[in-house]
Amino acid sequence: MKIAVLIKQVPDTDDVKLDPNTGTMIREGSGTIINPLDLNAIEAAVQIKRNRINPCSITVITMGPPNAQFALREALALGADQAVLLTDRKFAGADSWATAKVLAESLKKTGGYDLILAGEKATDGETGQVGPEVAAMLSIPCATYVTKIENHEENVVITRIVEDGFQRQRIHFPCLITVLSDLNRPGMPTLKGKMDSRRATLITLTAGDLDINPDELGLMGSPTRVVKVTTPQKTRKTKRYSGNGVEKGIVELAEKIKSSVLNR
Question: Of residues 258 and 46, which shows the higher confidence score?
Fold first, then answer.
C-alpha cells in the first residue's frame, strides 16, 4: 500500500501580513510550522502503516519555498518514509486551484498512491478547497471532515461529520481523505527519527518536472483575485468590573440583556 500525505508549512502566528498590491501573503520574516490538521493526517498514515499486515509506505508532499524542507524533515521524523518538495518561483502566489494542480501532477509523477491524506484546511487560508480539488483533478473519490478511519485491505471505511450528525462511508482505493483534529492525537518524533530525518534525501521537483502549462502556475494561473485588502477596525466598547464591583457588573449586565430581549 502506498500512502501520500499532503502537508503545508504555515506561519506560526496570527499576525499574518498581506501584500496590498497582489493580495498574497507575505511569508518572509515569520516563523513557520506544519499546518496543525496536517499533523493529524501524518499520524493517521503512521497508524495505518503500523496496523497493516502487508507492506506500506508513506510519502509526504508539500509545495512551498526551499525552507519548506524543514516541514518535510519533521514529517519524516514523525514516521514518513520519503518526502517530496515542490519548489519553484513560478509556483509563487498560487491560490487553491493552482496549488491543487501542482499537487495533483506531483502525485501522478511520484505515483500509484492508494490513499491520499490531508488536513481539512490550512490555518493561513481556511478554504478547505485544496483536498477536494486534488481529488477532482485525479478523478478519485473524496471524503471530507473525517473523524475516524477504519483501515481494510481493499477499501477504507470512514466516519465524517455532516450537518445533522455523522455519516459512515466505505470508499474504494484510490481515494483522498481530509481529516479533522478529532481523528487522533498527533505523535511526537523520536530522537532516532530526528537524526534520520536530517540525513534523509528529499525528492525535489520544479515546474519543469511537471506536465503543466506555465500559464497555469502561480499567480498567473490562479482564478482567484484579491481586489482589496483591509484591516478590520475594532469598534467594540468594553467595560470591566473587578473586585467589589463584580456584583454591580452582574446586575447591570442582567438589565442590559433583559432590555435587549424586551426591545426585540
Answer: 46
Q: What distance in Å separates the CA atoms of residue 218 and residue 30, rounded to the nearest whole number? A: 21
For the segment 127-155, what is each residue's pLDDT rounded down to a tens digit?
889 999 999 999 999 999 999 998 777 88
Q: Which one-letter DSSP state was computed for residue 41?
A: H
Can you point out the beta strands (E) in the chain? 2-6, 9-11, 17-18, 25-26, 32-34, 57-63, 82-86, 115-119, 142-151, 155-162, 165-172, 175-179, 203-205
Residues whose CB falls within 8 Å of the CB of residue 160, separated by 6 or more in sequence, listed in order? 143, 144, 145, 146, 147, 166, 167, 168, 169
| CB atoms inside a 10 Å sphere around CB 183 | 23
Cα distances (angstroms) measured from residue 226 to each of 24, 32, 93, 120: 8, 23, 11, 23
Q: Are strands 25-26 and 17-18 parallel, antiparallel or unpaired?
A: antiparallel
The pTM (predicted TM-score) of the whole model is: 0.80
Q: What pLDDT is attached to residue 20?
A: 60
Q: pLDDT: is 15 or 8 the higher one? A: 8
| Cα-to-chain-centroid distance, residue 212 | 23
Give, in order, the Cα–Cα distances in Å from 106 to each of 50, 179, 259: 26, 21, 60
Give the integer Cα–Cα distance in Å for 69 and 75: 10
pLDDT in tens, 221-249: 888 877 777 777 777 778 888 888 898 88
SS3 at position 220: coil
CB 115 within 8 A of CB 4: yes
C-alpha radius of gyration, the chain, whole number: 22
Grid cell for residue 257 = 440583556
Domains, the chain, with CATH or none = 2-216 (3.40.50.620)
